[in-house]
Inverse folding.
């Protein structure tokens, strides 16, 4: 079956740069802050922010932990050098180690969540210092699969790449001339040594993006996806992941008591009045 | 006869009618400087599009003492103006509306008949549906106005054609969607295709004014167009940017095309009426 995830990158760039520019200026800001991990997604968000508001208005943060891969730090520096954005490097080790010490049994995923949330704290703190709006780096694949830490790497004020699947972010990365090794390396949250997204998820982005595209964008039913050639167990696993992670894509529900309740019948866009 | 048409694809401030009015007056001034006879603004041009709970606070009546329409009436002494706004009737029902202003008066108001309430759209929750589709006479001939989803259905343009409209003025606040391998948004491709088809099918002028700018994550794509009665595109505004797109409509072109291709003459509306009657009586 022919599933075409190709995007016109010129068109996408134009829309997304305009979006960043519009959303930043409408809240009264002129600048942006981005956590630059050394990976593909944050490199693309950073490049789009540069297109939108200019390199001098973008602050890239490198926030390594002591066991982070040295490659991550170096790759982030490549992006900083290439796009000539401002940068800060702050070790999160001293911040997270005391928390890790509280429980010697702490699992890898708990430690990972703490690191992701520590980085969020720096992102929002530097937002205040630099007067820049935090720009998000979560793509559609990880948002749909819930492969993300709530209030951690997911946290941002504006997300330019959340409607692009990972394989589409890769296309955009080519167009934006992100250094090739960053595009080619296995995606990783780099929360512990040897971690890769595809290893943890149990499937490749190439595969799951095609399936997600049918399920979400084309509104295929489970049976249609199986007929289209996807393995039944894979389809079920992905559908269940999407369902179970719905909470990550929403603000916490508020229990309705009054006649007008935030989230249900108090409805305004964020751009209200601007 | 010549009609100098200006299509104003503006970005609006969501819910800030005063500020949007100022922009209208600027564009009207510019259009006048470029010798326009008629300027067409997009859907909900005075208010912005995703209004939700702002609907009741941005509604205005096109009356002389209205602080928003007053200046527009005055401006319409110089050139005709189509504006998009939220209309409120005496029973406090709210409509997505287009008003045609000329010589300081309202010539016609169209209430959007089809309110998309699916996918990203939620108009049916906040607005009342219009219940009439009428052409009306202007100093340039008989005109019909439709708003966005109205012309995603084939019947409203057809009815206006049968009601004598030779010029269709279409306005939209069309959120862009469908980025794929092509260099044009799927939504832009669709709208331009049907506009061209209407021009062909009805041997009429079809002008489309679509807004630009963003509202949260939605982008409005602009790309104003005018198709002549042969279906040829005679004007095209840029995508995504504010612009005043000028088009010179040679109204004698309608006669020339229809002398060759008498689709109006041969159209059997009585047959449509009869068969629809049969279909609906089932």
């Amino acid at each position: 079956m022919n599933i075409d995830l190709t995007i016109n990158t010129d068109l996408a760039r134009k829309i997304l740069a305009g979006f960043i520019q519009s959303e930043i200026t409408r809240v009264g800001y002129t600048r942006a802050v981005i956590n630059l991990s050394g990976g593909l997604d944050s490199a693309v968000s950073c490049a789009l922010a540069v297109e939108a508001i200019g390199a001098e208005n973008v602050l890239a943060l490198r926030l390594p932990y002591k066991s982070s891969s040295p490659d991550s730090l170096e790759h982030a520096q490549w992006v900083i050098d290439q796009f000539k954005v401002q940068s800060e490097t702050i070790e999160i080790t001293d911040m997270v180690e005391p928390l890790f010490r509280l429980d010697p049994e702490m699992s890898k995923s708990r430690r990972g969540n703490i690191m992701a949330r520590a980085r969020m704290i720096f992102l929002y703190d530097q937002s205040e210092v630099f007067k820049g709006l935090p720009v998000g780096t979560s793509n559609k694949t990880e948002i749909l699969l819930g492969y993300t830490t709530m209030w951690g790497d997911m946290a941002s004020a504006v997300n330019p790449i959340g409607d692009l699947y990972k394989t589409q972010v890769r296309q955009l990365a080519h167009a934006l001339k992100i250094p090739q090794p960053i595009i080619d390396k296995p995606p990783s949250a780099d929360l512990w040594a040897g971690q890769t997204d595809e290893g943890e998820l149990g499937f490749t982005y190439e595969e799951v993006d095609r399936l997600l595209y049918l399920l979400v964008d084309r509104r295929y039913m489970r049976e249609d996806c199986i007929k289209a050639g996807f393995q039944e167990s894979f389809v079920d696993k992905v559908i269940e992941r999407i369902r179970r992670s719905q909470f990550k894509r929403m603000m916490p529900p508020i229990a309705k008591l009054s006649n007008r309740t935030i989230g249900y019948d108090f409805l305004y866009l964020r751009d209200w009045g601007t | 006869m010549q009609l100098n048409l200006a299509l104003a694809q503006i970005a609006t401030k969501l819910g800030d009618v005063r500020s949007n009015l100022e922009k209208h007056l600027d564009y009207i001034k510019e259009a006048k400087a470029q010798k326009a006879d008629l300027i067409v603004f997009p859907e909900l041009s005075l208010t912005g599009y995703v209004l939700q709970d702002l609907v009741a606070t941005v509604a205005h009546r096109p009356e002389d003492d209205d602080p928003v329409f007053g200046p527009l009436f005055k401006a319409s002494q110089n050139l005709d103006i189509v504006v998009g706004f939220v209309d409120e009737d005496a029973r406090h029902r709210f409509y997505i509306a287009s008003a045609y202003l000329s010589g300081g008066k309202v010539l016609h108001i169209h209430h959007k008949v089809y309110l998309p309430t699916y996918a990203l759209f939620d108009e049916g929750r906040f607005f009342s549906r219009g219940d009439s589709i009428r052409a009306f006479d202007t100093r340039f001939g008989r005109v019909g106005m439709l708003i966005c989803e109205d012309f995603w259905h084939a019947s409203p343009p057809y009815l206006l054609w049968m009601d004598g409209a030779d010029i269709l003025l279409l306005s939209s606040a069309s959120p862009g969607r469908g980025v794929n391998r092509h260099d044009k948004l799927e939504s832009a491709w669709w709208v331009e295709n049907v506009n061209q088809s209407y021009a062909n099918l009805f041997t009429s002028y079809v002008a489309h004014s679509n807004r630009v700018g963003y509202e949260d994550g939605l982008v409005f794509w602009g790309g104003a167009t005018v198709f002549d009665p042969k279906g040829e595109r005679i004007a095209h505004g840029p995508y995504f940017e504010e612009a005043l797109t000028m088009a010179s409509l040679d109204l004698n072109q309608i006669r020339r095309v229809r002398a060759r291709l008498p689709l109006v003459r041969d159209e059997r509306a009585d047959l449509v009426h009869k068969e629809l009657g049969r279909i609906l009586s089932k």
